[in-house]
Amino acid sequence: MATKIRLQRFGKKGKPFFHVVVADSRSPRDGKFIERLGSYNPNTNPATIEINFERTLEWVNSGAQPTDTARAILSYKGVLYKKHLQGGVLKGALTVEQADAKFAQWLETKAAQIEGKKEGLNNTKGEAKKAALAAEAKKNADRAVAIAIKNTPVEEVVEEEVVAEEVPAVEAATEEVVAETPATEEVAAEAPAAEEAPAAEVVEEAPATEESASEETPAEEA
């Protein structure tokens, strides 16, 4: 009897859950199976795979053919690599101790890769959470400012605008008064000179009047 190692679907729509089973190749996908070997949950990251390693290896060595997805799962868990090492032992290329050492080293490397992926995913989730919290805080702050502006009375806003407009006008008027002050002082400094000019002319003209009076007196006496 030809047998296959394949997945049997369970779970609800959008969140499938699979059993890894050995079944007759002629039976339907979700029909009767011979033995259940493990489970596969793709809803987690990384995916959760539980499998009976020894029983799965026995079925593979006895000729059970895995489907493409089942082959990927068996390769991920090291079943196919273990079969490859056992083949090397049977051919005399490796000893049992060497095969076991190679497989133990492979398991350590695989475990380190899985842990590294988990740490990377946790860091990514932490950064995404921080970014989401910062965005939420900014959104709340903007909302609080908008509510404060909405609740502020209109009269207070108008008074603030009027005061803001009057202050520059007063400053401009003060600057104009300060700018005009030196011109007023110059006019005051020039005023005495203009008033003194007629007095000098009167003093200069006075002797001429006396001379004309002295010249006219003898003529009258004669």
Defining key terms:
single chain, 222 residues, alpha+beta, S16 Ribosomal Protein, Chain: A, 2 domains, five-stranded mixed β-sheet, 5 strands, elongated
Describe what this molecule looks like in 3D.
This protein is α+β, with helices and mostly antiparallel strands. It has 2 domains: 3-80, Ribosomal protein S16 (S16 Ribosomal Protein, Chain: A), CATH 3.30.1320; 95-172. The protein is built from 5 helices and 5 strands. Strand 1 (3-12) and strand 2 (15-24) form a beta hairpin. It is elongated and about 95 Å long. The protein starts with a strand and ends with a helix.
The gist of it:
By secondary structure, the protein is of the alpha+beta class.
Topology, please?
Blueprint (H helix, E strand, L loop, with lengths): L2 E10 L2 E10 L10 E7 L6 E4 L1 H9 L3 E2 L1 H10 L1 H13 L4 H56 L2 H68 L1
Parallel strand pairs: 1-5
Antiparallel strand pairs: 1-2, 2-3, 3-4
Helix pairs in contact: 1-3, 3-4
Share in helix? over 70%
Q: Uncertain spans, ≥5 residues at pLDDT below 50?
A: 181-222
Number-wise, the strands total 5
What's the architecture of the largest domain, going by CATH?
2-Layer Sandwich
Q: What's the domain count?
A: 2
Radius of gyration: 55 Å
Q: Identify the strand order in the major beta sheet.
A: 4-3-2-1-5
* Integer average pLDDT: 75
